[in-house]
Amino acid sequence: MGSPPIPAIPDIHALVYEAVSQPKALDMSSWHTCDTTHCRAGWVVTLAGPEGKALEAFHNTDLAARLIYEASGYKINPARFHDSNEVAMADMKRLAGLAAS
């Protein structure tokens, strides 16, 4: 059996930023803390729905999130999954087009 299909998330940057902007939604120290708290990669897998979860189970969270980002039109540096909450939030805000120019 091969790898599950790789889902794409339309407007991935805006959706990820919207998710992590909720109170206590971002915790970069763990892939998944609970149903409403994840790191950046955990949110990407979660937002991809059942297909994201299947991809995560087949590979791992890091690779699944990278593949989903790429399928969604953005090649992310995997080091971004190890940023602090503040650095990750600033980068996600920038990618969502909400950072000051």
How would you describe this structure to a colleague?
A hairpin with a 2-residue loop joins strand 1 and strand 2 (37-38). This protein has helices at 12-20, 40-47, 49-58, 61-71, 85-95; strands spanning 32-34, 37-38. The chain has a two-stranded antiparallel ribbon. By secondary structure, it is mainly alpha-helical. The chain has one domain. The relative contact order is 0.21. Helix 1 (12-20) packs across helix 2. The chain has five helices and two strands. The mean pLDDT is 95.
Describe how the helices and strands are arranged.
Layout lengths: L11 H9 L11 E3 L2 E2 L1 H8 L1 H10 L2 H11 L13 H11 L6
Helix pairs in contact: 1-2, 1-5, 2-3, 2-4, 3-4
Write a brief caption for the model.
The chain has 101 residues and is mainly alpha-helical.
Task: Label this structure with key terms.
mainly alpha, 101 residues
By DSSP (H or I, 4+ residues per run), the number of helices equals: 5
Shape, principal axes of CA atoms: globular
User: What is the element string, with H for helices and E for strands?
Assistant: HEEHHHH
Strand order of the largest sheet: 1-2
Q: Determine the N-to-C terminus distance.
A: 47 Å
What's the structural domain tally? Answer: 1
Radius of gyration: 13 Å
Round the mean pLDDT to the nearest integer and report it: 95
The biggest sheet amounts to:
2 strands, antiparallel
Structure classification: mainly alpha
Got a strand count? 2
Poorly predicted residue ranges: none
Query: What fraction strand?
Result: under 5%
Helix content: 40-55%
